[in-house]
């Protein structure tokens, strides 16, 4: 659940400011490695299938039988917290609805480049007339305008967690983990302003303005 995810971020120190793990000489940020347990809930199409077949077809890193056998022998794979220790057990284990597959792994993230020790963030509020129109007068509506560096993904995805914009800005601005909401997308390799907020209503309002074309995004391509 969300609280468990937050507890893990704090315990493993993955919710950290941009300068944490950053090389001042070249701006490369590499978070400290750690051990994590990644959990996957059984999908409907997996039900009734053997654990072995699902591991080999749905998890690319475990498709190789030799690698999978090593993982199993070391007790690094679990179903509902019970270790699966051999190919035979994995073959005879039939997945059911609500089963949880857990993988213990050594977590290390791809590096990103951050030009300075902080990410530039400007905090603005919605205009009073907008707050009145959308019944937001009695709630906090800060909008965080972040200057996202190239190479940094907006939100945690795939191999990126600590090295995502949301995580670093939350830590820098002393916002609770998993609180910041991106209001629009911008690709990982693209740098530029990214609007975020902590109120779902504000996020939906900004998103609707962008979709309606009331708020526009402009891209500038520099050719060297």
Give the arrangement of secondary structure elements.
Blueprint: H1 2-11, E1 28-29, E2 34-41, H2 51-58, H3 65-73, E3 77-79, E4 82-83, H4 87-92, E5 100-107, E6 112-113, E7 121-125, H5 128-133, E8 142-148, H6 165-172, E9 181-182, E10 192-197, H7 200-211
Antiparallel strand pairs: 1-6, 2-5, 3-4, 3-5, 7-8, 8-10, 9-10
Describe this entry's structure for a reader.
- The protein has 224 residues and is of the alpha+beta class.
- It is built from seven helices and ten strands.
- The strands form three sheets. Strands 2-5-3-4 form a four-stranded antiparallel β-sheet, with no helix packed on it. A four-stranded antiparallel β-sheet has the order 7-8-10-9. It has a two-stranded antiparallel sheet with strand order 1-6.
- A hairpin with a 2-residue loop joins strand 3 (77-79) and strand 4 (82-83).
- The longest helix is centred in the last third of the chain and has 12 residues, at 200-211.
- The chain is globular and about 65 Å long.
Short description:
The chain is α+β, with helices and mostly antiparallel strands and 224 residues long. It contains seven helices and ten strands.
């Amino acid at each position: 659940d969300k609280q468990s995810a937050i507890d893990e971020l704090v315990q493993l120190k993955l919710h950290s400011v941009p300068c944490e793990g950053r090389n001042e000489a070249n701006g490369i940020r590499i978070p400290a490695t750690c051990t994590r347990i990644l959990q996957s809930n059984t999908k409907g199409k997996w039900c009734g299938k053997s654990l072995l077949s699902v591991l080999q077809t749905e998890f690319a890193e475990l498709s190789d039988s030799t690698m999978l056998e090593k993982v199993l022998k070391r007790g690094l794979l679990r179903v509902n917290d019970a270790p699966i220790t051999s190919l035979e057990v994995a073959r005879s284990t039939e997945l059911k609805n609500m089963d949880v597959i857990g993988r213990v792994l050594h977590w290390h993230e791809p590096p990103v480049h951050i030009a300075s020790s902080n990410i530039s963030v400007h905090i603005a509020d919605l205009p009073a007339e907008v707050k009145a129109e959308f019944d937001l007068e009695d709630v906090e509506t800060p909008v965080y305008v972040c200057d996202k560096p190239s190479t940094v993904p907006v939100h945690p995805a795939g191999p990126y967690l600590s090295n995502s914009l949301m995580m670093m800005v939350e830590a820098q601005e002393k916002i609770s983990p998993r609180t910041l909401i991106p209001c629009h997308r911008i690709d990982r390799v693209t740098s530029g302003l990214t609007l975020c907020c902590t109120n779902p209503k504000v996020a939906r309002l900004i998103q609707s303005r962008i979709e309606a074309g009331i708020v526009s995004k402009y891209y500038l391509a520099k050719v060297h």
